[in-house]
Specification:
GH; alpha/beta; CBM2_carb-bd_dom_sf; hydrolase
Amino acid sequence: MRPRTRTTPRVAAVVAALLGLLAPLLSFATPAQAATTGIHISNGRLLEGNGNDFVMRGVNHAHTWYPNQTQSLADIKALGANTVRVVLADGHRWTANSASDVANVISQCKANRLICVLEVHDTTGYGEEAAAGTLDQAADYWIGLKSVLEGQENYVVINIGNEPWGNTNPAGWTDPTIAAIKKLRNAGFAHTIMVDAPNWGQDWQGVMRDNAKSVYAADPTGNLIFSIHMYSVYDTAQEITDYLNTFVNAQLPILIGEFGGPPDQYGDPDEDTMMAAAQQLRLGYLAWSWSGNTDPILDLAVNFDANQLSSWGRRVFNGANGIAATSKEATVYSSGGGDTTPPTAPGTPTASEVTSSSAKLTWAAATDATGVTGYDVVRVDGTSEVAAVSTTAASATVTGLAPSTSYTFAVYARDAAGNRSPRSGAVTVTTASAGSPANCGVAYRVTNEWPGGFQGEIVLRNTGSSAINGWTLRWIFPVSQRISHLWGGTATQSGAEVSVASVSYTASIAPAGSVTLGFTATKGSTNPSPAAFTLNGSACSPT
């Protein structure tokens, strides 16, 4: 039994990773359209056989090392997941999971109304890990299981091999990946196939990103999805959103096949952005891992006990953009006679605590025979809708709004089976103005800049005749800039909106006096300056 191994790149390699991840986005051609056999791909989206969009929300389970922990699948489902990624072995490094064992895993997934992603773990770190097997060997294993897998296309995704290349010559990943895909297709597999990235799954040198078009084109069915694993390499919002948007903008299907949140000696993964970006882009995510890790900090459940979630488990299942709030059960199970009755519509929301950039919405709870698991707040514009925020409570605060602007919001409820309620009534909210001009001036400038980041300076001046004692400065970044560190004040950031509160040594600004703030931040390919600033709710003049 060996729960898991991973090699992490050296510090210099991580720096190279960050530069590579922040390279300009690639221009990919629109990928081929998929055949419609079971779970499939169309226009870059993962769909069920009936054409419904399917967004994976689930976790990884180390079945091959803990074959007796089949209760875990029921526990994972009970916490709201719609998918489980199951660790298997092909016999190269660990004892092979037999055909009867794999058939039982699939049966357990179906009994618990879960979509089952099956992966071979023996390939982990090939080229750097001497014991690792090849993708070709993994493909042969899947072919040996064809009688078990055939006919399960509505329920099973085949992840050819876990993290199938280390950090040694990761460019060697592309050709074997294409060959394994073709081998499975030539053997008659119609399932959606998932492929993991090199660099131990993290693609910090951009090999999968740069070759995604050619790999996707090699699959004659178009039923191929890419899987990125996000750990300590992905410790800033910019790295995460840039990588995911590269694929989304190219209509190439992708999900976060593994991710961790707890920090380690190599960095602190930004799991909040991973989960928020996945929800915003409607991409799947599968957290590592249920239980039994050699590093227990990554256990979602302590000792396989669903009643003892770790802090990491509570974050994944019950936190913002977590599984409980965002998971929807695959409709293939509803068609089999399960729960198809949606919740009642939530009450029409009411607005309170309206500011120039946010509003709190509250509504009467929906009801459902099996229980309401979450609510989706949407912004309504004529006949179109844009997702605003998801929550498990009957209230939510929508942020990132523009001053003096009218918005219309409504709410949907969801139940454990993924049924969505009728839409609630709508409420229209007009945000407050940014305030009349204050006796202040703001000068903003970039003092240094590098790929993926920059250093900035803000000079805040008192242009009035009396002292300013205590202040809060706010602005909205035009694109995806995000504050990493700020001195001269205490910064918080929600989306593009930044708020900086004074500290003891900057709180008082005498007439004609000024204070200077400095900060570092991440950025994308452009770095435009903010258009406006407010001080204590009133507009400041640019200087």
